[in-house]
# Entry
Amino acid sequence: MSDHDHIIEPHTRTLHTRREFMRTSMLGAAAAWTLPVFLQKTFLTLDAMAADSAIQSATGKDGTILVVLQLAGGNDGLNTVVPWADDAYYKARPVIGIKSDAVLKVNDYMGLNPKLAGLKSLYDEGHLSILQGVGYPNPNRSHFRSTEIWQTGSDADRNESYGWLGKYFDSCCKGADPTVGVAIGNELPQSFTSPHPTGVSFSRPEQYRWMNNDRTGDTDALFRELNSPEQSADTNAGGSIGMIGGAKQKTGGSTLDFLQRTALDAQMSSDKVLEIARKYKASVDYPHSPLADSLNLVARMIAGGLATRVYYVSQGGYDTHTNEAPTHERLMGELNDALAAFAKDLQAQGNFQRVMLMTFSEFGRRVTQNASNGTDHGAAAPMFVMGGAVKAGVFGKYPSLTELNAGDLIYNVDFRSVYATVLEKWLRAPSKQVLGKAFPLLPII
Amino acid sequence: MTKAAHLLNRAGFGGSPEQIKAFCELGLDGAVKQVLNAPDDAEQFPKPAWAAPRNMMEMRQQLQALPQEERREKFQMMQKEERGNGIDLIAWWLDRMTRSPNPFREKMTLFWHGHFATSVQKVKQPFLMWKQNETLRASAFGNFGAMVKEMSRDPAMLIWLDTRESKKEHPNENFARELMELFTLGIGNYSEDDIQQAARAFTGYKMHPVDQTFRFAPMQHDEGEKKFFGKTGNFNGDDIIDMILEKPQCARFIAKKIWEFYGYESPKPAIVDALANSFRAQKYEIKPLMNEIFRSAEFYSADAIRTQVKSPVQWVVQTVKILETELPRGQVVINVLRQLGQIPFAPPSVKGWDGGKAWITTSTLLLRYNLANFALGRGPINMQRVRNVAANKNMNRPGFDVENHTPIDFEKIAPKELRSDSKRLVAYLAFRLFQSPLGPRESESFIGFVEQHKDNLDDETIRDLLHLMMSTPQYQLT
# Structure
């Protein structure tokens, strides 16, 4: 790895974030003449955008950060937060039920999966809250549909096309860096979708850049020049119809302007992400798993002060229809080890107080084990919320294992109450505006 | 030439310089006629081998006869097979878009697919998705009213919007709501009561468990009086659709959506009114509407030409045509489209794809730039990414396969005799890639690149240049 002096190529040593841009632009025109000409128009655009936004969200080193962790496939809540004192649990799950003496007891009714020792410690230290019986009315048992419901925060009987985080970015983070939302993975999650999508995704930082085959070293400079707004609006005047960059639309802002602004954003955020990835290494050892890799990357981005409010990571494999025990045990182990390392890393960085991690899964699983010693799609399940500022404890009621709805646990906490709480109390955002209606807040923060 | 290219790009998926020139020689009249009357391609694209009805009744009986463990295994095997068929289906359509002598019908079918957006993720049966696709294709330039009625009975739609679950005791409102909100009128042009009443009219719409065709179940249909749009009567589903079509708003809604897909976003009300009036006068016949659009001056105005962001499907198919290469194999091209945000047969919701600027984020823009390198035949830059996606999606199929990539004919794309003349070379390449002259900054940059490499303008350098040209905001426009 190169030493710090060579982290940034000379020509990228310009400006990295819109916030820096805006700060600089506030110095006024005097500063502008030192900038490449092509950036000057951008200042005007950015100033206008900053003025537009109702709430300028705090980003970078100062703001609170949310990490959303999706347990994809439908995590078995009953074998995660285990009702060890309930006979009905062992009656329904004679083979896959977790023996009561192995459970990491939280109270005289339930405890954590034996693999979740790290989470138990975090709970004991006051950094973990356990939300029981989270779900929504008229639960849907399709992965696709139930995931969509969780990602969009919609009612089960309505189709909502935009994601709850996308709506948050849209209404509260206008003019922010595109890295306001970062998804570790190959595509933006559905929860990031919005009429004006923002957010970036990558599973390795080196993918989030323009990959050329620059054998002479001059292509990159040309690329940068071509991927920035035009010098001035007048350049295009008189361009003939069809001349690229020539056609000015009468309606709204030109699509080309938008693309050029996004291209500049892409360059700046790519430079920043790569710089942080090169500069910051984990302060603790992470285990080897895809989830641990993802959280490691998130921790490095946080350490480097990427202007991000929401990170999104996921762990797959929870669709345990067949021979559940070994698979679920492994997943719980990976989850635990990755989260424990992440918490330790953030504590070492001094960032644990400003980071909150929330888990969710599209549904829990059926109470009764099936004939293949697995479980089928169910409904309500627990969520974990972890962080330095979290109010530790157990919230919500553990759903009854005998009063069921078509074989499934009945929810008592609407997941949108959790979203509303996170929005209001952690991200300081108006939850009603984002979720479309008001939900009761929970005392978890 | 710019106009001809514009029509070819928007009505179809663009083409090579030769194809654009041939199209141009037809003249506007001839070109529009070709768009609307291109030859049928059904023989060239026979239905996939697996595209046959699944006898659900028989399959259920067979499964139930098995011991529990085997039943589960068999069921999982069937699911896996259907997932494979789903991948095959997407590849089948993309291939048809790319190679069909009638790409115009495919483009229009893509529009209707985005309009009646249905996803295999819920429908689960690729055969039904294929069947819906064929229905949309057959009606693509037909009658809109007839198409809505066909869609109300379409088996994939019956599953997608729960119509088949809708009984007179418990009418399900999903289809009735989206029928008005998304398929015909747009939000705000009906009441919640209208939805409830319409839902009653669509009860008893079932699917036959043996041949998987539409079946009307009179016992489950609500024969009572319904009050809809101020009228009262024992309306059935078709009556409801007819009453919706009577509303001028329906013609406005559809005409505007079609214009925005082919022309540009947010057209002036006068344009929408004019189109809607003739659409209604023509009793919702689609072909005359398209004829009017493609012959209008507005379609060739500065507001329209090169102002549209290519959809991911357009980007992929047009790139293949521009570079005169082949589509990557099924799983690869699907992973590419997934990351770019548009998988045919799997729209994100019943609202379809937002399109336009929503295709572009910093991530998808960089991805398009990097995919251009792959399209140019360069190494497996995103190999890990593709593998990850394959693993995540539980579809562990072979990923990238660089060896199988069709070589690009650089000699044809950048003839040797042009390589000594930087200006002519850049202009020549620009027509292929952008179908229009370059702006001064772009022109200077590309010419500068050629000048700098003039002693060594081999195919690799041409590839570098093409990659640079495609890694621009301008290449994202059509």
Remarks:
- Chain B touches chain A through 77 residues (CB under 8 Å).
